[in-house]
Write a structure and sequence with these properties.
Elements lengths: L3 E5 L4 H12 L3 E6 L2 H14 L5 E5 L5 H14 L5 E4 L13 H29 L2 E6 L12 H21 L4 E8 L20 H13 L8 E4 L1
Parallel strand pairs: 1-2, 1-4, 2-3, 4-5, 5-6, 6-7
Helix pairs in contact: 1-6, 3-4, 4-5
Length: 228
């Protein structure tokens, strides 16, 4: 039976890079994001290199948590196996006290609640099979605050708190859980940052980290991995 990976936020940036990397490793893919056109483009690009690889795409808005969760559970129940969940969907809005309430809520809805419902939907299947790896995309902003990023930092601190508990809860089921905590990655999300492009890390640094973690032995559990 072929290995299978689920990637959220797969239409661009880190999620797209991880989806393409996992395709090179022979994983069949379930790709999830809001933008159906962009998802279909990612599938086309993967099929241009791996025409026989199974790549399913699903347009889901994780901020609509109840409807999204029902769709995710349905997807999980159709999969024969789930080897990897790359829990990546996220948004960023600059600001601390000056951020709009709606923007703050949106980051919590997607970055925290969205990550939670993805984990909940797919972990139940992984617990039954007693196997798998969940990667939660954190951020160094979940460990080191900065003055103009209060809303985003709050969401990423929450991600790391949830990740730590999930890491402990799933270890007895032979499921590994790691939060990847990069600095500034060169994606659409960071175009407006003051950080010069040459100082940003490439998305390939994320895939290299995943490659390393997947190569570790069964008794090696890494709760968080900083990439700075």
């Amino acid at each position: 039976m072929n290995k299978h990976a689920v990637v959220t936020g797969a239409s661009k940036g880190i999620g797209k890079a991880v989806a393409k990397y996992l395709a090179t490793q022979g994983y069949e893919l379930t790709l999830i994001a809001r933008n159906s056109d962009a998802l279909n483009q990612v599938r086309t690009e993967i099929h241009s290199v791996f025409p026989s690889l199974s790549v399913d795409v699903h347009s889901i808005d994780l901020s609509d948590d109840k409807n999204a969760y029902e769709k995710l559970v349905t997807i999980a129940q159709t999969l024969n196996r789930i080897d990897i969940v790359f829990n990546n969907a996220g948004v960023f809005t600059l600001g601390t006290l000056d951020i709009d309430v709606d923007d703050f809520s949106n980051m919590i809805d997607i970055n925290v609640k969205g990550l939670f419902i993805v984990a909940k939907a797919f972990c139940n299947e992984m617990k039954r099979q007693k196997h798998g790896y969940i990667f939660n995309l954190g951020s160094i902003a979940g460990k080191q605050t900065f003055a103009t990023g209060g809303g985003y930092c709050a969401s990423k601190y929450a991600v790391l708190g949830f990740n730590g508990s999930l890491h402990q809860e799933l270890k007895p089921y032979n499921i590994k859980v790691t939060a990847l905590c990069p600095g500034v990655v060169d994606t659409d999300m960071t175009k407006a940052f003051d950080t010069p492009k040459e100082q940003k890390m490439g998305t390939d640094e994320i895939t290299k980290a995943i490659d390393y973690l997947l190569s570790c032995g069964p008794n090696t559990h890494v709760e968080t991995l900083d990439l700075t």
